Amino acid sequence: MNRAFYSDSISKFLIQSSNEIIGILNNPANGAFLQTQQQAWHYQINLLKSILKTYDGRIYFEYAIPRMGRRIDVLLLLGSAIFILEFKVGEQEFSTYGMDQVWDYALDLKNFHETTHEQFVVPILIATEAANSFVAATITPQHDRLFKPVKTNAVQLRDVIESALLLTDGNVINLENWENGRYCPTPTIIEAAMALYNDHTVVDISRSDASAINLTQTTEAVSEIIRTSREKSCKSICFVTGVPGAGKTLVGLNIANKHIDKQDNLYSVFLSGNGPLVAILREALARDKVRREKEKGARFKKSTALSEVKMFIQNVHHFRDDCLKDTKPPIEHVALFDEAQRAWNAEQTASFMKRKKNTPDFNQSEPEFLISCLDRHEDWAVIVCLVGGGQEINTGEAGIGEWVESLNRHFPEWHIHISSHLHDSEYGAGNILEQISSRPNVTYNDYLHLSVSMRSFRAENVSLLVKQLLDRDAVNARNTFGSLNERYPIVITRDLAKAKQWLKEKARGSERYGIIVSSQAERLKPHAIDVKTPMDPIHWFLDDKDDVRSSYYLEDVATEFHVQGLELDWACVTWDADFRYSPTGWECKSFCGNRWNNINKVERKQYLKNAYRVLLTRARQGMVIVVPSGDQEDTTRNPAFYDPTFEYLKVIGFSVLD
Fold first, then answer.
1. What pTM does this model have?
2. Which of the 8 DSSP states describes residue 247?
């Protein structure tokens, strides 16, 4: 696949006229470009023609990075090195944004382009009018052959290239093999949502290795159910299961985006009860829309972008409220419920309706009511339940069993398509599935299960490790960690300051890092962590390093309620005394007044365990776990509350941060 607007050998590039190259770049199929962009291309072409006269290799203009929805200005393959050139034509200063931008391009190729993994990669930021500042002695490749970004002006660009090539001692890159290398990205859910919303396919932004192929297969299986239901005028519900980070939300967003055709009266909607996730995705899509329009020279209000996005992603509770007010069928024939197991049970729903909606006689669970809304259609409808295992973290969450029981009680005509793994213990369906074994139109489908975590592109078994850790299976957890330690570092410490420094040293470019804690972690105040202090997840997840509200500042912390369904590149999990290791089992505590109290309800214990499961599976590239030392003089932070947990983590094999 040709990812560049223009690509050719350097020898042919040198003999082509600038106007001829501009004509190729200006192909209408590539879009419409402002005059300033064409002027920038002229500058880049003329400069590189003067620099590359003595080199062999290949040159690419506007090389696509689909995962990021961006294009690299110029990519050069020279000798044994790949040069990434980001031009800031006419600028005299090097911005932090520009440095992160070129870092991110280099990291993307290094991490996700298979024939770049072992190559030297040299990212260069060129502020064309900056003062001379490049010093050859300051550049050096890191352990993975990726150079730190080099800052230069136009005059010194030749010196940068020559100096870098002196430090690259590998074999000359095989140009054909490099071009044929697979691009196998693992986007964050925010990146994926932006790419899908801008008409990329799931193939563009997902890994293509054999272990992740079923992401596409699952999408196709659900699409087939939608197509068949529409053709046969029947109503269907399907349950898609997956391990943490496997891509359930990505599948849901992809299907919602794919099955919208207003001219053909086909509407679908992605629904989630996860308020922070909905707000963050909407804001990210709106900001991206405004940015793209601005780059085209158009003015576009964010409020307009937000209103468009709301048709695509909705809060499930708002959808429910609209259906309460209007008893007609909803406009959507396809509804995808993210984390469907977190829908409310009848008791929680009735309580809410009485307190907030002045509806004292409401007697349905949320799953039952939501099915009834789609059941209003006279012809066809499809509900897709995206089901996570061990993800229930709040009171009143019904689990997947309530969906099945609702179907059994009131919707005998619905066709049911079930992941073959729904009976697994972590999904909580249990014996309920036996109740529908004799009903017609029940189909089990292996393709409705996502078995491989894609959150961590460095180590797929992180979710297994966390499960073993929380199940107190230290022997197997140690073995699992041993198999992923080199690719996915996990360290432990008693010192939060050391943990913060570790995060900053590990993260490169705009890789996002932050501190995450349990919502019950109420005795971390001596470490300047107060879980009761309000924070805005939109700013925390989306804002840049210069914003004190962002995760980068390591001041505001996020809890399991803020981060569920989202991810960081690097995470600091700070472990309080609410969840303590003991020889007889996990001790679950809640803090009230001036003391820790036992949590006795089995349900609440499971919520707390699941909270730590969410926290420990958020990081894509590695994490540091902080278990405070406590304070002998503080009865609420007795070291005995913390030491056994720290020692248990050491047994698993996590190294102690010096």
1. 0.81
2. S
